[in-house]
Amino acid sequence: MKTSYIIYTNNSEDKIIEYIEKFKKLWSDDDDELIVIDDLSEDQTVPIIVGTIGLFFKDEEHFKFYINKPKKGKTKSIQMARKLATNKHKVIIGG
Q1: C-alpha distances in angstroms, 85 versus 14, 22, 34, 43, 62?
Q2: Using one digit for the tens of pLDDT, what is the confidence trace for 16-28?
């Protein structure tokens, strides 16, 4: 089943590794994708995402990373991610 996984972050440096690990356990198909939406985090969330995801994905086809500008809030960010998702099935992880 082709699935788009969505992670919303906002100052989530203490949880982002956990969210990414959950995604890795759910990953089952080369057609799956991960969409991370960061809502202008002011901590180390973004560097952690870049460092961790960069080691897992070999291409940009399966991974999309967006940083809101301006801040949108959780609901609008997830709505945006759903529109960006290319797969029919969508799963939200953490956030």
Answers
A1: 26, 18, 9, 26, 10
A2: 999 988 988 888 7
CA dihedral 14, 20, 21, 26 (to 10 degrees): 150
DSSP reduced 3-state for 48: helix
Q: How far apart are CA 38 and CA 90, in angstroms?
A: 18
Global pTM value: 0.89
User: Residue holding tokens 């945006």?
Assistant: 80
Q: Give ∠ CA 22-24-30 in degrees, rounded to 5.
A: 140
The stretches in the chain having pLDDT less than 70 are 55-59, 95
Alpha carbon dihedral 76, 67, 81, 65, in 10-degree steps, equals: -170
Question: What's the rounded Cα separation, in Å, for the pair 50 and 30?
Answer: 20
